[in-house]
């Protein structure tokens, strides 16, 4: 099969029976420049995570086709059916399905995207494929397993179990505490927390800290209000702004000191963080950081490296997966079973705790940027079933 570039293919599709057109050299060059611009714009239609997922799906589908001697592009719907059937039969070491139904649908979306991007019909839209997926969905029908919520007392337990005031353990503890409060108080998804920059934060004398989330999973176009509030806490240990101040101060110190004196400098900062004293100005005192510390576009949550004697804060930011792993590890260290929990448990915990404390659905939707009340109510039914339930009014 002869491969043509995108411009030639689109001209061909637009005028199959038209006589050949000889373009002026200057016009042809301009069209190719416009094509390059259009291709660049296309790369922004999907989020980075979605693009990575589609690329992974295409590699999987391509490998399947190579192994069986089948054509991947363009693929016949029957080939896609065989691929779905193959995914449905794969199991892991524990005998559980290797590909969840959501993953199978994501793989099909990746196959579809590649075909449409290259100017071919989407084979995954054929009824023979959709019927197969529908049948698999009925066969595997089960209530989704949701992450259990981490409410306030559990978050405090995790944070308190960390070593905050000893070098080098205190460096990663300071970062991890900040991440936990972003997930709980800010109700942020792990990808949103990982994507924050220093200039995403704005100190506010009355509210605490305003966090500008920007484009998110539920708002790819960044068209919705994206401000999340991290409020002052009643105590320094439950104060999200204090946690942020401590971490940003460490970042500042790490970036400005001589590497040879890093240990001594960071250690003095850690010992200077009195965990029982507000460092965010909530009690009328001074703030540990100011607006100049938040002028950079560098990542907020950085990767850290530490051994028994030293700690380093890298320039690169953490990933969402790293935050998920961190939470589960910190739960284990706190003597808690992490098997039913993940970073999303902090977002779920925000809903559950707020509802227990009397927050309305509208208030919770605003805090977590949910668009549908039903999404919020799911947490009530699963983890707080007594809330707004007439059974509590039976006078038993």
From TrEMBL:
Keywords: DNA recombination, DNA-binding
DNA-binding found in the keyword field: yes
InterPro entries associated with the record: DNA_brk_join_enz (IPR011010), Integrase-like_cat_sf (IPR013762), Integrase_catalytic (IPR002104), Integrase_recombinase_N (IPR010998), Phage_Integrase-like_Recomb (IPR052925)
PROSITE patterns for this protein: TYR_RECOMBINASE
Domain Tyr recombinase: 145-392
Domain of life per record: Bacteria
Protein name per Swiss-Prot or TrEMBL: Tyr recombinase domain-containing protein
């Amino acid at each position: 099969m002869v491969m043509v570039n995108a411009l030639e293919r689109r001209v061909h599709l637009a005028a199959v029976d038209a006589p050949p057109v000889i373009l002026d050299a200057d016009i042809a060059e301009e069209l190719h420049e416009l094509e390059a611009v259009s291709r660049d714009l296309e790369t922004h239609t999907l989020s980075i995570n979605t693009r990575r997922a589609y690329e992974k799906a295409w590699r999987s589908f391509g490998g399947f086709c190579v192994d069986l001697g089948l054509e991947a592009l363009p693929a016949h719907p029957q080939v896609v059916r065989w691929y779905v059937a193959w995914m449905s039969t794969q199991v892991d070491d524990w005998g559980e399905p290797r590909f969840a139904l959501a993953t199978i649908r994501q793989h099909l979306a990746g196959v579809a995207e590649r075909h449409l991007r290259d100017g071919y019909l989407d084979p995954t839209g054929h009824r023979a494929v959709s019927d197969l997926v529908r049948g698999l969905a009925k066969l595997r029908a089960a209530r989704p397993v949701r992450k259990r919520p981490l409410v306030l007392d559990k978050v405090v337990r995790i944070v308190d179990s960390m070593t905050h005031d000893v070098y080098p353990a205190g460096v990663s503890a300071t970062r991890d505490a900040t991440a936990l409060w972003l997930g709980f108080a800010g109700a942020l998804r792990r990808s949103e927390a990982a994507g924050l920059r220093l200039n995403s934060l704005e100190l506010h004398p009355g509210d605490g800290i305003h966090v500008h989330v920007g484009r998110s999973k539920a708002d790819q176009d960044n068209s919705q209000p994206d401000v999340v509030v991290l409020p002052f806490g009643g105590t320094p240990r439950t104060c999200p702004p204090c946690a942020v101040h401590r971490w940003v101060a460490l970042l500042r110190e790490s970036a400005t000191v001589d590497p040879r004196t890093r240990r001594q400098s960071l250690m003095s900062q850690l010992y200077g963080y009195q965990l029982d004293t507000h460092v965010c100005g909530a009690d009328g005192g001074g703030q540990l950081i100011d607006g100049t510390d938040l002028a950079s576009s560098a990542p907020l949550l950085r990767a850290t490296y530490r051994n028994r004697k030293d700690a380093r804060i890298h320039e690169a930011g953490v990933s969402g997966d790293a935050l998920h792993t961190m939470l589960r590890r910190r739960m284990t260290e706190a003597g808690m079973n992490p098997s039913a929990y993940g970073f999303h448990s902090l977002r779920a915990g925000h809903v559950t705790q707020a509802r227990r404390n009397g927050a309305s659905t509208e208030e919770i939707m605003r805090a977590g940027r949910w668009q549908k009340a039903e999404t919020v109510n799911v947490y009530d039914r699963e983890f707080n079933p007594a809330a707004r339930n007439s059974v509590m009014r039976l006078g038993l």
